[in-house]
Amino acid sequence: MKHHDVIIIGAGAAGLMCAATAGYRGRDVLVLDNAKQAGRKILISGGGRCNFTNQKVEPHQFICGNPHFVKSALARYRPSDFIELVERHGIEYHERDHGQLFCNDSAKDIVTMLMTECEWAGVKVKLRTDILSVNKVDNGFVLTTSNGDLSCQSLVVATGGLSMPKLGATPYGYKLAEQFGLTVLPTSAGLVPFTWHAEQKARFEALSGIAVPATITAQDGTQFSEALLFTHRGLSGPAILQISNYWRAGEAISINLLPGEDALEKIELALKNHPKQSLRNTLSHWLPKRLVEALFEEAQLDKALNQLGHGEREQLAQRLNHWSIIMNGTEGYRTAEVTLGGVDTNELSSKTMEAKNVPGLYFIGEVMDVSGWLGGFNFQWAWASGVAAGLAV
Question: How many whole angstroms separate alpha carbon 326 and alpha carbon 252?
Answer without folding.
Answer: 4
